[in-house]
Structures are given as structure tokens and as C-alpha cells.
Design goal:
The protein has helices at residues 2-22, 44-63, 65-89, 97-101, 110-133. By secondary structure, it is mainly alpha-helical. The longest helix is centred in the middle third of the chain and has 25 residues, at 65-89.
């Protein structure tokens, strides 16, 4: 039973990640600086990362319960880590931002929290689902 829910969650991640990849292409969602909702500066590399993650989620959802659990655990760890890293430095590692721009240091501003919240939430829930809901 738990494995069916993991496949459903992986399928849901496909839609969420495809939505994230399409944000820059929907009129009215970006400001004059190219930031989605005035917070996220997404570029083509970010979009490609979201699409690749979405396709991985779709494959996992269709392939097997074990693939769905693996996706949720690995994706969850990577995205949660990226969100934590981004919160503490201002840039994540999945998009190579920390390597390209260095660290802005620790900040507790609302902007920093909102900028990293999607990866913290998506990664945290995926890891929870894979590790806790995926138990037999």
C-alpha cells in the first residue's frame, strides 16, 4: 500500500517540477529583472534541471515502487541539501550558483527564506515520503 502512494507522489513531483520549469515562460510571473514572483532568478540551466528532475520523477512513477522510493530519497536529499546550502550561503549547488558567485554569507531575511523555501519543502517532503512512508 505504501508503495502505491510513493508512485503517486513521484507522479505529483513530475507536475510540480514541470510547473517550476515553465514559470519563466508564463506572462506576468516575472518582474523587470527576470525574477519569478520577484524572488527567483531562474535561467535556462535551472529550467533544464527542473525538466530533468521531472522526467526522472515520471520514469520512477511509471517504472516501479522501488524506483519511486529511490527517486524520492535521492531527489529529496539533493534538493533539501540545496535549499539548506542556499539558505546559509545565498546560492545552491545544483545550479552551480555557489561555484559561480561565491557565498553571500548567512542571512535571515524574508527574501532568503522565500528563495530557498521551494527546495526545502520539495526536498524535505520527498525525503520524508521515501524514508518514512516507504517503509514496508
Amino acid at each position: 500500500m505504501a508503495y502505491n502512494i510513493l508512485k503517486s507522489i513521484s507522479f505529483l513531483y513530475f507536475f510540480v517540477l514541470m510547473a517550476a520549469a515553465s514559470i519563466n515562460y508564463l506572462p506576468g510571473l516575472t518582474d523587470d529583472q527576470g525574477r519569478a514572483f520577484g524572488i527567483f532568478a531562474l535561467d535556462l540551466f535551472d529550467d533544464a534541471l527542473h525538466v530533468a528532475s521531472a522526467l526522472w520523477a515520471l520514469y520512477a512513477a511509471w517504472h516501479s515502487p522501488r524506483a519511486a522510493r529511490f527517486f524520492l530519497i535521492v531527489f529529496g536529499a539533493l534538493y533539501l541539501g540545496d535549499g539548506v546550502f542556499g539558505f546559509f550561503t545565498g546560492y545552491g549547488y545544483l545550479d552551480f550558483g555557489i561555484f559561480n558567485y561565491g557565498s553571500d554569507g548567512l542571512s535571515f531575511t524574508l527574501f532568503r527564506v522565500l528563495a530557498n523555501l521551494p527546495h526545502l519543502a520539495l526536498g524535505g517532503f520527498a525525503l520524508f515520503a521515501g524514508l518514512i512512508l516507504g517503509r514496508k
